[in-house]
Write a structure and sequence with these properties.
This is Sugar ABC transporter permease. By secondary structure, the chain is mostly helical. Helix content is 76%, strand content 0%. The protein folds into 2 domains: 2-65; 76-242, MetI-like fold, CATH 1.10.3720.10.
C-alpha cells in the first residue's frame, strides 16, 4: 500500500507541474499578444512613413523619434491640448467619484419612498446609448452659452448611471449594516457616515471607477469635437485627429508619436489606481 501511494505522488506532482507550465505558457502568449500593439506603436514612432511601409517590416526601434516629435509639436498645440484634456478628465473624474458615490451610498444603505422606481429609471438611462443625447445636450449647452468652453464637457459628465450602479453594487457587499448602526448610535450624521465609514471601505471600487472614468474622458472624441467649436482650443484626441491628412498626406511616424505620448498620462493614472486597488485588497485579506 505504501509503495502504491509513493508511486502516485510523483505522478500527481508531475501532473500539477505540467498544468502549471501549460498555464504559464498560455499567460505568456497572451501577454505577448496584448503588448505587441504597444510595442509596434513604439517602433512606428521612431521611423519615418517610408520606413514604416518598407518590406520586410522593421521590428527594431529607429532614430527618428525626436524628429517626429518636433514635427508633432510644430503641427498642433500638443501640450495645450493635453492640458485641456487633463483639466476635463481630472475634473470629471473628481465629480463622478463624489456624486456617484454619494448617490450609490443612498441607494445601497438607505430606505426611502420611490427608491426602486428611481433605481429602475437609472437602469433605463444606463441602457440608452450616449449618442442619442448628443443633439439635446448640444441644444442645452447652447442655451446656457457654454458651447466652446470646457464647461460643456465637464458639467454633462459630472455624474453617470454606470458609476452609480457600480458603486451601489459594491457598497451593498462591502459596507456592513452594523458599522452604520454603530455610527448612528455615536451620533454620526449622514455626511460623517459617508466620509468616515463608507469611503475608507470602498476605496478599491472608487479606484476602479476613477480609472474607468479618466480613461473614458481622456479618449473621448465625438462630444469634444461637437462642443469645442474653436479649433485652437480643443482636447488632445481632437488635436491628434488633425494630423491625419495634413497637407494631403499622413505622416504616420508623427501620428504614432502623438498617440504614444498621449498614452503617458493614462499609464500614470492606471499605475496609481491599480496600486490603490491591490494595496487595499491586500489589507482586506490580511484583516
Amino acid at each position: 500500500m505504501a509503495s502504491i501511494q509513493s508511486t502516485r505522488r510523483p505522478k500527481a506532482i508531475r501532473g500539477t507541474r505540467g498544468r502549471g507550465i501549460a498555464l504559464h505558457a498560455v499567460l505568456v502568449v497572451g501577454l505577448v499578444l496584448s503588448a505587441f500593439p504597444f510595442y509596434w506603436a513604439v517602433i512606428m514612432s521612431t521611423h519615418t512613413s517610408s520606413e514604416i511601409f518598407s518590406y520586410p517590416p522593421k521590428l527594431l526601434p529607429g532614430t527618428h523619434f525626436l524628429e517626429n516629435a518636433r514635427s508633432l509639436f510644430d503641427t498642433v498645440d500638443f501640450f495645450g491640448s493635453m492640458l485641456n484634456s487633463l483639466l476635463v478628465a481630472g475634473s470629471v473624474t473628481f465629480l463622478v467619484l463624489l456624486f456617484d458615490s454619494l448617490a450609490a451610498f443612498v441607494f445601497a444603505k438607505f430606505a426611502f419612498p420611490g427608491r426602486r422606481v428611481l433605481f429602475a429609471l437609472l437602469m433605463v438611462i444606463f441602457m440608452v446609448p450616449a449618442q442619442l443625447a448628443a443633439i439635446p445636450q448640444f441644444v442645452i449647452m447652447a442655451k446656457l452659452g457654454w458651447i466652446g468652453s470646457m464647461t460643456s464637457l465637464i458639467v454633462p459628465a459630472a455624474a453617470n448611471a454606470f458609476g452609480i450602479f457600480w458603486m451601489r453594487q459594491y457598497m451593498r457587499g462591502a459596507i456592513h449594516d452594523e458599522l452604520l448602526d454603530a455610527s448612528r448610535i455615536d451620533g454620526a450624521s449622514f455626511l460623517r457616515q459617508y466620509w468616515h465609514v463608507a469611503l475608507p471601505v470602498v476605496r478599491p471600487g472608487l479606484a476602479f471607477l476613477g480609472i474607468f472614468t479618466f480613461m473614458g474622458q481622456w479618449n473621448d472624441y465625438a462630444w469634444p469635437l461637437i462642443a469645442l467649436t474653436n479649433p485652437d482650443n480643443v482636447t488632445l484626441q481632437v488635436a491628434l485627429s488633425q494630423l491625419n491628412g495634413t497637407h494631403g498626406t499622413t505622416d504616420y511616424g508623427m501620428v504614432m508619436t502623438g498617440a504614444l505620448l498621449a498614452l503617458v498620462p493614462l499609464l500614470i493614472v492606471f499605475a496609481i489606481g491599480a496600486r490603490q486597488i491591490i494595496g487595499d485588497l491586500a489589507k482586506g485579506a490580511i484583516k
